[in-house]
Amino acid sequence: MLPVFLGEPVSPQMLAATLAELDETLQLLEDKFLQNKAFLIGSHISLADLVAITELMHPVGAGCQVFEGRPKLAAWRQRVEAAVGEDLFQEAHKVILKVKDSPPADPTIKQKLMPGLLAMIR
């Protein structure tokens, strides 16, 4: 999200490493936590599901299709959205899903935040 917010390019090496780590994390989420359950800790939605879906919506907001090619994870997302309610789910993620279409941060804010943020993504 930071490169999108700042309007800064990411090195191909950093992007590849980040996407590989994301893929490993998604696999772990499916295999160890979701398994064959409807939700992360059982048959009913929990705080764990809400926290996890919020985290996964960040890369979605940056343009990464984390649910593509992962039918188990995509079905879980649909169950979470249905349990929360489609309107509330969309409202909760409205800002994050629009980030990739927003202009970069104001130059003054960007200048103040840039040193610390760049250190985090390098």
Automatic annotation (TrEMBL):
Highest taxon in the source lineage: Eukaryota
Region forming the signal peptide: none
EC number, as in UniProt: 2.5.1.18
Residue intervals of the GST C-terminal domain? 1-102
Catalytic activity, reaction form: RX + glutathione = an S-substituted glutathione + a halide anion + H(+)
The protein here is known as glutathione transferase
What organism does the UniProt record list as the source? Galeopterus variegatus
